[in-house]
Each structure stands twice: as C-alpha cells, then as structure tokens.
C-alpha cells in the first residue's frame, strides 16, 4: 500500500474549480461584474504563468465567503456542483482513483483551491483526505482570511509534511498526479511523479527527467 496523491484542477477535473466558482458567482450577480471578472481572469493567467501573488488572490477570492451567509453559500455550492463541476469530472480520472483504491492505497487530494470549494468535490470523488487552502471561520461565518500555510507551490510540500507527521504513512512508493509546473516542488519529492495532461513547462521537465506522462481527457 502506498500514498496516491492527486491534484484536482485540470487533473481529476477538466477545469479550474477556483476560476469556475468565480464565474458562477458572476452568474449569480453576487460580485461586481467588471472588477471581479477582471481579477478572476487575471489571477488564473498569473497562476498558469507561475507568477501568482497568492495572498492578493486569496483576499479577492475569499471575500465573497465573508459577504454571504453560510446558508446562501451552501445553496450556491449545490448549484455549482451540479452545473459547473459534475460535467467536468473526468471519467478516466475516476477510473485512476478507483485503481489506487482497489490496490489499497491511501488516497489524498492536495490543491491550492480552498476547502469551501473543494471539500464537496473530494467527497463526490470518494476521497476522504484533502489538503486545501483553509478559510478561517469565526462564530460560524467565514472571515475572508485563511488559517495556516496556503497549499500552493512549496506550501504543498510543507502542508503534506505536516499531514504525514500525523499519519502512520510515509512517501515510500508514493504517487502524485498533477498537470501544473506549480507542483514541481512536490513532484520532486515523490517516488512516482506523473504529469497529467501537463502544461508546457511541466511537460518539458517531465520529458527531461523521464517522468510518466498520461492523459485523462476523453
């Protein structure tokens, strides 16, 4: 048995769930239609380029969680799952997860997207363990701030190390599936790094290092 780690956005999903949530909020009229759309698109481009200012992004991305009630957010998330997420869950991704589950591997999603968005997605995929950006809650409401280290780039390595310290697990024989060059720091720690429909930068590294490259797209 080994640890099988999965990135989420553009790996098990064919979209970026963070950006899709922003699009969903725009459709609901929950955010400013001009400034929020510009920021949502700009931050996605910065992420893809490897230049994302994570703190600046989180200040914008988490603000709507603080501005609306938990009840409203929960109702929106149900709609979001049905309209934006379910059509973009990759069947080959589910098959990959199922193969690791059948082997008895421990399944873990690690993502730079926050837990409010990704918790229900991980549950839908049947993966109990999730490392994500943690939005702060006080008295049952989101504050717009975060708790702990954001699980982004080197932060994923730190968060995984902390998680492993609380488990009876190691990285021996581990697998990590990701599409993004932003995950290189973690891919380099893994026994079996796998580039999944990789961006050009990750593909170049994977080819140079002889890492496995796969596609989960139909």
TrEMBL record:
Q: Give the UniProt keywords, A-Z.
A: Hydrolase, Magnesium, Metal-binding
E.C. number, please?
Answer: 3.1.3.-
Q: Which domain of life is it from?
A: Bacteria
UniProt key word Cell wall biogenesis/degradation: no
Entries under SUPFAM superfamilies matching the protein: HAD-like
Entry annotated with the keyword Hydrolase: yes
UniProt GO MF annotations: hydrolase activity
Protein's recorded name: HAD family hydrolase
Species per Swiss-Prot/TrEMBL record: Halomonas aquatica
């Amino acid at each position: 048995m080994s640890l099988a780690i999965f990135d989420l956005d553009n790996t098990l999903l064919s979209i970026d769930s963070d950006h899709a949530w922003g699009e969903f909020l725009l459709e609901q009229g929950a955010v400013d239609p001009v400034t929020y759309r510009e920021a949502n698109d700009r931050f996605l481009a910065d992420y893809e380029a490897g230049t994302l200012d994570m703190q600046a992004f989180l200040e914008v991305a988490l603000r709507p969680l603080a501005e609306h009630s938990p009840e409203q957010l929960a109702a929106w998330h149900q709609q979001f799952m049905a309209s934006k997420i379910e059509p973009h869950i990759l069947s080959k991704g589910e098959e990959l997860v199922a193969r690791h589950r059948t082997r008895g591997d421990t399944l873990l999603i690690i993502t730079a997207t926050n837990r409010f968005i990704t918790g229900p997605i991980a549950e839908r995929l049947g993966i109990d363990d999730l490392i994500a950006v943690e939005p702060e809650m006080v008295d049952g409401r989101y504050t717009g701030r975060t708790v702990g280290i954001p699980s982004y780039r080197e932060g994923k390595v730190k968060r995984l190390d902390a998680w492993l310290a609380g488990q009876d697990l190691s990285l021996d024989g581990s697998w990590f599936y990701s599409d993004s060059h932003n995950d290189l720091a973690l891919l380099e720690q893994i026994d079996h790094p796998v580039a999944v429909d990789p961006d050009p930068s990750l593909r170049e590294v994977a080819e140079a290092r002889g890492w496995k490259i796969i596609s989960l797209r139909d």
